[in-house]
Amino acid sequence: MALSYLDKAIIFLLPLLVFQFFKDQRVYVSIEYIYSITTVIIPLVDLGLAGYFFYAYRNSDNQEATLKIFVKTFQRLYLLISCIGLVLIAVNYYGFEYEPFIVFIVSRLLFVLATVFFASYYRLTNKPEKAVYITLFSNVLSLSFLFAYFFSGLEFSLWLIFIGQILFSVFYLFKCVIDVFFKENKDFDNHKLKKLILSTLLFSWPSLLQVFIMMYITNYGKMHVLTKMNLDDGVLLSLVQRFSMLIFLTHSSIWAFIIKDIYVEKNLFVIRRNLLYKYLGFLTLALVFVIIVTEIYLVYNYVDLFRVTSISALIIGQTFFACIYAYLEMHYGRENKNIIKLYLALFSAFVFIMLLILLDINFLERISIAMFVSTFTSLLLSIFVLYKRNYKIA
Prior knowledge:
By secondary structure, the chain is mostly helical. It folds into 2 domains: 1-188, no CATH class; 205-394, no CATH class. Helix content is 84%, strand content 1%. The protein is built from 13 helices and 2 strands; from the N terminus they run H-H-H-H-H-H-H-H-H-E-H-H-H-H-E. The protein is globular, with a radius of gyration of 21 Å. It comes from Bizionia arctica.
């Protein structure tokens, strides 16, 4: 647990340290832009494999065999995405004016794709710390290069942030090539592979679209930070969402350790009281801490406190309610009702788009209000749906 928090602390701090050390607003918002693009794309490229993993494992008669087939399937998916990424980099380099961001986007996409899968795999094998070792090593490596460059007085380069992720992505690519093409696979059944991919898509396609929509809403501002905002507003949005990430990191840390307990619960229509209260308790503590830290930062760095505080409250509130929304919607997946999650996401997208169209105010205020209202109303609707489906807290 301690290593997990250390890893997430480094993830949280890396972009902030770049901003603090090198004082370059454009570089900072560029890093957040790369992160946001990757976050939006990742739900589509993993085909829902990591999410379906728990459902298939829970319902499998031979859980050991299920683990093996998922690993082999993922390695082939990783190879495919890697090849597509390399082609896109080559086309961008030779066919268009070269955009260096694409290298960082592809490498981070592969890194997140792998670590999300490993988190599921090692959680099911009761070795969740192994997934942490992977991300911790990559992040510590990037942090070390960052400190070395800063104290040496060298000019900053974006690859410092992504060096650990790039190296891991390349290393795992070679491992997949060796495992798939050179190691013996006598026990591998292509029919099982095709069946698994089909089952994954049938199970996950509503979730894929739902997560894509929700991530697009949450990251909409940062994806347009270089084109529709001035740098000051872009930094404000990016920093407050970075501070709010502490709430999400608390959510994901707790989630990683309780998700198996939730999925193996035999009664599908029970929300376990002890897990829910523990989750809400830790999440609320994170919320209070983020509010305090953000307010201190705003007081020392901004003059128009009413405006920046209002925007910050909307962004922080959206993150808090989005985490609760994500926790509750896991229960739809347990009963294989992912279509409900898609309907809720479509409702959220409708509210978000309508507010973007109807509100005639500054872009940052507009997206902050749209994000908060669309997320909060979707949470209320989800609670109502759970109630109508006779879910009980017990």
